[in-house]
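INTERNAL AUDIT FORM
Audit reference: QA-55
Scope: verify that the stored structure record matches its stored sequence.
Auditor: D.O.
Record contents follow.
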Amino acid sequence: SPKSFRTQVLECHAWMASKKKQDIERAITVLTDILTREKEYIPALLGLSVAHMLLKQPPRARNHLKRIAKMDWEPEFADDFERSWLLLADIHIQGGKYDLATELLKRALAQNQSCAKAWEYLGLIMEKEASYRDAADHYDRAWRLDRESNPATGYKLAFNHLKAKKFVEAIEVSHKVLGAHPDYPKIRKDILDKARALVRA
């Protein structure tokens, strides 16, 4: 029996994982072929978006992702919708279009409240807008959803506590990060030492 579209898309992701140009272009050929036969096939559109991001062609990726964003959500493709909304939100954040990104992230959370990445991106938007207390609230959701295991999120959470002048919270999170990742760079010097000094001041 011929391979299902889903199987072909998974093979394409495996090729793209090599990050080699010829493998990515091979994936693009297969994904484009799938779309000639089923032009709204979301996993193939997402796959093409990933391929164009790997080839440093964000405008092309954005075009495919915008097509997905206009489609009605289907439970069968829940993961593909979530990943495409997050990828498009990331592109919008990099372009300074925070309102468009926020709308997509809220859509992701409406379908999946446990999407740590969506909470993290909302934290990033608040941080860029200098709303450090709100940023910390959103990073905290992401941090807890990752069972306090992601040191990068822990760092961002502690940093925003520090900026919001919540020094004790910054110290607590820094200790948790260093407890699990003793040599995690910068958190001791950038956050822990500063927060300690400010508590004593």
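Auditor finding: record pair retrieved intact. The longest helix spans residues 21-37.
Action required: none
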